[in-house]
């Protein structure tokens, strides 16, 4: 087999070209890896739950995001640590007789200034249906309370169906809900489940799109 011979100049030119391409590929790969690691480290999905429906919904949202985000129970974290550690937030609250969970409101009040531009999305889990004007107005009212302390409202907000399992209710909740059903709904309290894993996963996918493409604008319409 004949061996190619190069002049010193040709040899150095080839080495420089190939080493430069290798270095560019290495640096490009490193840049992508660093970018993914940055997203993974800097995003938190905070939820406030009472009986678990909001936690389940938060997990489904997380499943819709291929990028890893930290799933955190807002009742088990230090606000100062979370506000220092993360750059982006998705925050969700279950709705009960007291409305939006007080820890979510407290978190937004505490981080009012430092959260500016960092709230990627918010969500609610409740029994109110969006199929009527009255229901939509009630949900909007919940979000208004939730966002009251924020300088800028998040571009993505969505209400998801909740769940009641009568046998698992605390006594006080059972009594309050029984009275509500009898007095306002003229019905008997019974178990129901309106949670929707697929809708929650789609919300997570849209949130990830906004996370990775902040310059392309926000997703205004969430999948129905």
Can you tag this structure with a few keywords?
elongated; alpha/beta; disordered C terminus; single chain; two-stranded antiparallel ribbon; 6-stranded mixed beta sheet; 8 strands; 48% helix; Rossmann fold; 224 residues
Would you write up a description of this structure?
With 224 residues, the protein is an alpha/beta fold. It has seven helices and eight strands; from the N terminus they run αβαβαββαβαββαβα. It has helices at residues 8-42, 53-63, 79-85, 102-110, 133-147, 171-185, 197-212, and strands at 43-48, 70-73, 88-96, 99-100, 119-126, 156-161, 163-164, 192-193. The chain is elongated and about 95 Å long. Mean pLDDT is 84; it is low at 21-40 and 216-224.
| Uncertain spans | 21-40, 216-224
Count of helical segments?
7
Total count of strands: 8
Oligomeric organization of the protein chains? single chain
Largest sheet: 6 strands, mixed
Proportion in β-strands: 15-25%
CATH architecture: 3-Layer(aba) Sandwich
Number of domains: 1
What is the typical, i.e. mean, pLDDT?
A: 84
Considering the protein shown, what is the CATH homologous superfamily?
Flavodoxin domain
- By helix and strand content, what is the structural category? alpha/beta
Helix amount: 40-55%
Radius of gyration (Å): 25 Å
Q: CATH class, please?
A: Alpha Beta
Reported by name, the CATH topology is Rossmann fold
